[in-house]
Amino acid sequence: MAQGKAYRTVEARPNAQSLIKPGELVDLVEVTPLTLADRRIFNQLLENAWDAIDKPVTHVIAKADLRGSHNSNDRVGESIERLMASIVKIRVIREGEEAIERVQLLGGNIETTRRDGLLEYEIPQRLRRIIKDSTVFARLQREVMFALSSKYALTLYEMVQKRGNLRYRSSEKFSLDDLRGVLGVAKGKLTSWSNLKLRAIDPAIAEVNALSDYVVAIDPIKTGRRVTHVELRWWKKDAGSTAEAERELGASKVGRKARMEGRAETLKPRPDWLDRRGPALRTETYETAKLRHPGYDVYFVEGEWRAWAAGKEPLRDPDKAFLAFFRSFAEKNPL
Fold first, then answer.
1. What backbone torsions phi and psi does residue 165 show, to the nearest 5 degrees?
2. What CA–CA distance (Å, rounded) separates 193 from 227?
């Protein structure tokens, strides 16, 4: 019997809660390190272009969708320029052999100068080919991506989301240099294992364990007296731990670090109508919020709303209540 055709990453579909990222773009090595904002914006550009991601076409996105809750387009422009200038190394298979391909993350683009304007952009040809040939991907939960507060945490989350559904594997070994490269640690920074662990790895693990549906661990492996490799391990949370992570996602970011470290009271359970695995806001509600309040990070405001509503009685119409809360939030927090 003939072997079935491999499932291609471009056939995977994003949805209202999640987006798709090719596995090759998860484990890439940044020659020029990017920031957390750069990485988020790149993921959003990929998502926006997804329906024609492997085609030589121009894509268009509103700058407000990239700006989030930030008041200015300056950060967007700076991120776009860094993405254009960034060269990354990606492990690929060419003619049956492993190879390293160096590519740019973003091609030419046009940014209209109006504050509520558009960005027209292109995906470079070599990157399109990598995406087209990809058969492994990470499904990233949008809410988690925006909740993580460091580029190391976001990268670790992406690494685990890529590997989490592997049937016969729950760990992977990396050289320390490879791990630094994937995490995007700048050359000359965090050169010792102790500094890398303290400043990058431990905080990233704490955030991913608190906010995602996986538990992650990174164990050092020594050659002689030096740590030369690490073992990344991951396992799926049980239902109770998953629900706890979802409650944390719905809570305010204020006090999150203390809660992760066990220095604050455990969050009270949210009512069923606020549970992410129960009734959710309609897609039309998100679109309406974006149209009424351009420039705001809809998902951040949703988190504030869920935190505010957690101690209140169930609402008859959560979608209507969210839009009313959003209107009040925008009046109190003008851009």
1. -95, 5
2. 7
DSSP for residue 51: G
How many Å apart are CA 258 and CA 46, to the nearest integer?
34
Distance CA 16, CA 18 (A): 6
Burial level of 168, CB count in 10 A (0-12/13-18/19+)? exposed
What distance in Å separates the CA atoms of residue 262 and residue 264, rounded to the nearest whole number? 6
- Beta-bridge partners for 174: 230
Provide the Cα torsion 171, 136, 89, 143; round to 10°.
-80
pLDDT for residue 193 = 95
pLDDT at 5: 60
CA distances from 330 to 119, 146, 252 (A): 24, 19, 17
- Sign of dihedral through CA atoms 63, 106, 175, 180? negative
**3-state secondary structure (DSSP) of residue 197:** helix
Residues of the chain with pLDDT under 70: 1-6, 68-74, 263-280, 311, 335
| CA-based nearest residue to 34, from 72, 90, 101, 84 | 84
d(CA 253, CA 231): 30
- 309 membership: H or E segment, kind and range: helix 298-309
Token duo for residue 68: 């989030």
Q: Which residues pair with 62 in a beta bridge?
A: 118
From 103, 93, 109, select the one nearest 125 (Cα to Cα).
103
